[in-house]
Amino acid sequence: MPIFIQINDIDNVAVALHPAPAGTAFGGAAAVEEIPQGHKMALKDIAKGDMIMKYGLPIGHATKDIKAGQWVHTHNMMTNLKGEVEYTYDPAVPCVVPLKPKTFMGYRRKDGRAAIRNEIWIIPTVGCVNDVAKTLVRDNQDLVKGSIDGLYTFTHPFGCSQTGHDHAQTRRLLAALCRHPNAGAVLVLHLGCENLTHDQFVTELGDYDPDRVKFLTCQQVEDELEAGSALLKELAEYASQFKREEMPVSELVVGMKCGGSDGLSGITANPTVGRFSDLMTAMGGTTILTEVPEMFGAENFLMSRCVNDGVFEKASNMLNGFKDYFISHNEVVYDNPSPGNKQGGITTLEDKSCGCVQKGGRAPIMDVINYGEQVKTKGLNLLYGPGNDLVSCTALTAAGCNLILFTTGRGTPFGAPVPTMKIATNTPLATKKANWIDFNAGVVADGVKTLDEAGADLLDLVCEVASGKLTSTERKGFREISIFKDGVVL
Known about the structure:
By secondary structure, the chain is α/β, with parallel strands linked by helices. The protein has three domains: 4-78, Archaeosine Trna-guanine Transglycosylase, Chain: A, domain 4; 119-241, 3-Layer(aba) Sandwich (Ribose 5-phosphate Isomerase B, Chain: A); 249-476. The protein is 28% helix and 20% strand. It has 13 helices and 23 strands. The chain has a seven-stranded parallel beta sheet, sandwiched between helices. Strands 1-2-5-8 form a four-stranded antiparallel beta sheet, with no helix packed on it. Strands 13-12-14-15 form a four-stranded parallel beta sheet, with helices on both faces. It is globular and about 75 Å long.
């Protein structure tokens, strides 16, 4: 079983795939102290101020002299990141060789889109009716039968006391959820006095099928629970007409996200998802990569793959726009990684970012999507959104993802509104938290599978989940949203 890996030939650090006791030799160096799993060891002497190279890119610089075999982490290195960057388009767009698509058993919606679940969703437009929504879900579980896979609500604290861009962002996100194909039918729940009015919401929603989407304003009825139950019965009758049928994976939209990352994320789980993404795009499918702040410092992996100047400009604006967002709030762009990330071996934002973007594989970047917008272009897309797990997974759902692949080195139990597959970076996590994890990419670190083999296995599992197999979060009923807020509270 391999203990260390040097990711790129020009790297001056190696990563411990498993805990490495002092004396463990690799690449001409021997550990002078214990190197924890996921952490870095210097392969040669590194002088103060020299770049620390990992993934073939600088992930920071040494803050003191580092001897070969020493542990390299927050005590002896730091980030190089500052603010905005002027990007130059130097296209190196990969050629994709088409592959025959695999198939799955999904639901065909009337607008032609594919779904992998046939659920009824209750969308509150304001936090004041959250408990009404939850009560309606609890009291109407008898509707979940036949081809109806579930009845759920996604509560939040917004929809009122918001202004301007912030108000519009909430409205756009909630309307996008209503349009999601996994929702066979939707009940939109208003209070009646919120500043996200019914008329505003209908305008944002655009054309809709009144048999699929119904509205209830609680202040306008005597008993909102009775009225809500009656509407849910009508929606269940509509949703029950849909049955699973065979479809190609070219119909799928898959989101890609990481959280609770560790030093193996960019070596095992994220590249496995990258291999999956390459397979999906070669089969005509769609994948979406987000977490813009965790692209900072890893732009070289992405920008040259933009399919044309227009997409490159959109990607540049997305990256610098998010940096402006940080700076406008008097925050530095590199206030990342988290304490848990650091404990797992990630030292700087560049370190985290270079691992994060491995989920995007090697395919061309076809388009850039704004927050709250839905994907329009097949292939690999970038989505404007933060790194926060709940916020970014909500944005991926709103963009139209049928399911989300979520890699983790530390573990997390939460689920998005769509099936959220948890992929472990290491076998100890997959073993310890088997009730959280759906796929173990730690087999790559163990030498049991190659990245290509793990990526192919992951595609097979995605097809099973798309056909109805429940994820760990679905079995527990863990589903929630978090809306990206940026504004005052009135």
